[in-house]
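README, section 4: Worked example with a bound small molecule

Sections 1 through 3 covered apo chains. Here we extend the same pipeline to holo records, where the ligand is supplied as SMILES alongside the sequence. The molecule in this example is zinc ion. Nothing else about the input changes; the structure line simply encodes the ligand pose together with the chain.
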Amino acid sequence: MTSNEHEPMGGKNPTLGQAARAFFTFHSPRIFAVMWPLLVATRLAVGDFGWADLLVVPILLAAQPFVEWLIHVYILHFKPTTVWGRKFDLQIAKFHRAHHRDPWRLELVFIPGAPAGSAWRCSPPCGSCSRPRRRWPSAASSAA
Ligand SMILES: [Zn+2]
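The generated complex, written as structure tokens:
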């Protein structure tokens, strides 16, 4: 096997620049790349630093693994449920299940650029979801 289409960038060994370009083709890294410097600049502009400011980074670093675990277990691995005869599922959970089936597909690794509040979807469509559906990267197509 010379190349694997299921591995990032076709199984090739990308350079750091190629990997960075691939990374920033996705929505969520671009949001972080813009928001993080803006938030740091805003905090620096506000000033009035105190001892509590020194605790923010270590607290975030200490909490992150637990927050990540809670998100993973309770949101990303949310199981479809039926309420009053209607099946409810989180779109992000469907997307994450597709990621587990095909972990090397980069478009299933990053948070898709869906409008806020669109994580809840009814499956099958129940009519209460009147918002136009955004097509997520074939999470459903790899659900076979
Ligand atoms: Zn998972």
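What to look for in the output: Residues 72, 76-77, 96, 100 surround zinc ion (CB under 6 Å). The two ends are 24 Å apart (CA to CA).

Section 5 describes how to batch many such records.
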